[in-house]
TrEMBL record:
The protein's name in its UniProt record: ABC transporter ATP-binding protein
Taxonomic lineage from the root: Bacteria, Bacillati, Actinomycetota, Actinomycetes, Pseudonocardiales
Molecular function per GO: ATP binding
One Pfam family of this chain: ABC_tran
Protein's organism: Pseudonocardia xishanensis
Recorded superkingdom: Bacteria
SUPFAM superfamilies in the record: P-loop containing nucleoside triphosphate hydrolases (SSF52540)
Keywords of the record: ATP-binding, Nucleotide-binding, Transport
Amino acid sequence: MPGVEVTVEGLSKSFGRANIWSDVTLTLPPGEVSVLLGPSGTGKSVFLKSLIGLLKPEKGSIVIHDTDLVRCNESKLYELRKLFGVLFQDGALFGSMNLYDNIAFPLREHTKKSEAQIKDIVMEKMDMVGLKGDEYKLPGEISGGMRKRAGLARALVLDPEIILFDEPDSGLDPVRTAYLNQLILDLNAQTDSTFLIVTHDINTAQTVPDNIGMLYRKHLAMFGPREVLLTSDDPVVSQFLNGRRQGPIGMSEEKDTAQAQREMAEIDELSGLPPLKPQIEASKGMPERKAVARRQKRVRDMLHTLPPAAQEAIQRSFAEQEHAHGRAAVVGAAPYGRPDEAPTSEIPRVPDAPLGAPVDRGRHHQR
């Protein structure tokens, strides 16, 4: 059973006279990994806080299990929050508690489980994120990456249906970011929960999620399956996902119109779309990610509505994936060049060194 669907409709948030974003409309598909992008200061973290009811939007709705979080009473909101697990940017661990007690905290606070039951759950989650054996270390004694993994273990202890990640790769080197990205997808394969990741890392955005959304100029520029966003001809989306200087986004978010037009003319001289980067797969021995088939079916159903260049790039990408999987099955090789190894139910331990349906364009959402 996949995680819960989250339906956001016409959401607007301001602080005083400062509008953060308006009329944000999207649906997080159940059990899939979604990423929210946008230039700095566009309110991505504010959006996460609104989803869990820490901030109250002025307009719109957030519907989970037929309940609107924006309008429900405090008692119902408290219960719905138990559906969420949250990984904060720095892990947000209690500095005076060891890792075991940090991870056990939600169980002691929100359940009536015995200490023996709590121990079983905590040790299981620590093993899942590669921290077995580090139970009695304090947050100040471990690396930033290990703190993030401890924060992730804490986010998992209540077996949430929705997990939010607020810039999980911030402060990490590329190698540890790659480990963390693999861990996120392996966890999704195991739990089939609904994930939403806020990130600035372009490689993460290109290779991890099933769906991509982007906030720009106080609105949701676009939200949809990864293949559609990665082949989009929308100037803002294309500029951001390709990490280009040329385009509407400038140092102060919006460029001078004439300059943006000159730069877009330079881009127009280029022909074709770059090949789509393949999505990271779950590690060998993990359950198959059911989200992939669900997303690809949506993309195939809407393929005829996309520009010809996008259709060609997406069809080529699907064909290459099918060929790679068929070849792996024939020769016994793992996809993307991973060596064969004995199947295991555990996620490989991360080193202890420093951790190291149409496209939704903000107006209509897909159910």
